[in-house]
Specification:
The protein is of the alpha+beta class. The chain is built from 4 helices and 10 strands.
Length: 239
């Protein structure tokens, strides 16, 4: 079973791991060489900025970042306006880097308020396909929100997060707040914060780990003993 997660950047305590499901049909991913095009993509090319949480980078060129962000924007317009026909990737230059299996998140905001956010912690698709799929899920399948409407599209801000591979650490002492996202596992429970969550909330390390424990349904101090930790970094593409 594929792991699909919903995330909250501004309300991180509601982050749920594995609560979503892979969807089919409406958001069909078409072969990049397909000539089918079920809609006129309204997404306009926008200057893309990059925000790195640490030193890790997917090593994308400016053109590749632009392509990835354009796929997210065009997908959003396509699916919110009905998703007629199969989405075609024909107009995009899909380089080898964009075809590397990669974990991504797509976050939607309106005036800095979360409107939808879904992604995976582990690679499930090639990078460009992952962004395409998560844009659909964030817009239409985040169960905490009603689906995004066409009227909202002009107000939507999109953030595309590209995640580094996850690695285990020996203890919470090896976690660098603000630079790394963190995953806590204990007694069959699991919870995660993206790298930007703690700085946005103004938490120190102990506060972050306390909230992480509670979000997993554990005692507030469960992180102090018997928990396993993993970390990752991210690069966020935004307007």
């Amino acid at each position: 079973m594929h792991l699909v997660s919903t995330c909250l950047r501004l309300l991180p305590l509601l982050l749920i791991i594995g609560c979503g499901a892979r969807t089919t049909g409406r958001e069909k991913i078409e072969n990049p060489e397909s000539t089918e095009n079920g809609s006129e993509y309204a997404g306009e090319e926008t200057m893309v900025k990059e925000q790195k949480s640490g030193s890790w980078s997917p090593e994308l060129s400016d053109d590749e970042k632009q392509t990835l962000f354009s796929i997210a924007m065009d997908t959003l317009d396509w699916c919110v306006n009905g998703g007629q026909g199969a989405f075609s990737f024909k107009k995009y230059t899909l380089t080898p880097r964009l075809k590397v299996p990669t974990a991504t998140f797509v976050t939607l905001q309106i005036r800095e308020t979360l409107r939808g956010c879904i992604g995976s912690l582990e690679p499930q698709d090639e990078m460009y396909q992952s962004v395409h799929r998560n844009a659909i899920l964030a817009a239409l399948r985040d169960t905490r929100f009603r689906p995004v409407t066409p009227k909202e599209l002009p107000e939507i801000n999109v953030h595309v997060s590209i995640l580094s591979p996850i690695r285990a650490i020996e203890s919470h002492n090896d976690f660098t707040i603000g630079e790394q996202g963190i995953i806590l596992s204990k007694k069959g429970r699991r919870s995660v914060f993206l790298p930007e969550v703690a700085p946005e909330q103004g938490w120190n390390k102990e506060e972050t780990l306390t909230h992480l424990s509670m979000k997993a349904g554990l005692d507030a101090d469960a992180w102090k003993e018997g928990a396993a930790f993993q970390v990752f970094e991210s690069v966020v593409l935004m307007q």
